Amino acid sequence: MSQYVPDVSSRRWVIISSNRVNRPDELDDDPTNDSDVCPFCEGNEKLTPKEVFRIGKGNPGEPGWDVRVVENKYPITDFHEVFIHAPQEDDLHHLPPEHIAQVFQAFRERYNYYSKQAHVIIFCNRGEHAGASIRHPHSQLVALPRQISLMALAREPIKNTVQENKSFTAYCPEFSQWPYEVWIAPKKVDTLFGEITDVEIEDLVGIYINTLAKLEKIYSEKHKTTEGFSYNFYIYPGENWYLRIIPRFVYRAGFELGTGLSVNVTDPEDAARELSESSDELRVAPLRSASEGQASHEPELGSGEGGMEEAPVKTKEEQIEDLKSKLERLGG
Fold this sequence. Notes:
Blueprint: E1 3-7, E2 12-16, E3 51-56, E4 65-71, E5 80-84, H1 97-114, E6 118-126, E7 138-145, E8 161-164, E9 168-171, E10 182-186, H2 198-222, E11 231-235, E12 243-247, H3 254-259, H4 268-277, H5 279-282, H6 316-331
């Protein structure tokens, strides 16, 4: 069982979960590691813990699924699940748009299953540098007691827009802690992720595919870490949710660990410009028009066709005050 250890002065918490040390490591270079059976591939369902949800055909624990959710064998907390994106080992943004929509629908269903009783964080670690231990692409869900204070950033103002559609805006916040990090935010405010509609999921899938495709291309040219596209994403667990994508172009080192400050080697404005340069050639057609199938979108907040407006230009004094506030948030 996990232990929750608080630091009273900073209001931060540490989770002691010693069973995590036993996780497999398919990505190491140890020649004695001869495991060639993937527990997440179709046909190996008996190798995973209990199945709790699926999209597709078949009974629990049997083949036939499109998206499968199982309990984590090495949980961080008492409620820790794994989303197996697909029977095959394709990265999420390489799957057909219709299938990616199923994955996000599974995210929504499991989020809503826990959200009334707990903080629910959904995240993906892809690649060795991002913390993945199994090659087969997957995401995870962890439910945390509500008395645990989370340090996740609130939604940042929209500046440095990369791309937008009817429901979402992709942008590189001025307060970007990592090179080329991208936030995808809904244009409707004051909502939880669990409230997303199927039509909005389709819009999210289109902008997600475009963003990851461009990040993967840039990563192949500029990364300073291990080979292979490594990135994390997570879905903010509270109101005014967003999906934050962090490509692992660089390592964090002693300065960042010792000060709590992040050193971003790429100006967010330059990152957004580079990401948006070829957005037209990468743009994916929506799965269906907004008038088909699902009920139409709820009214968007903000002004004009773009929904949320970009933040106004601030004076240097205002920028300094913002920086102080953000540093305080980082330092607890």
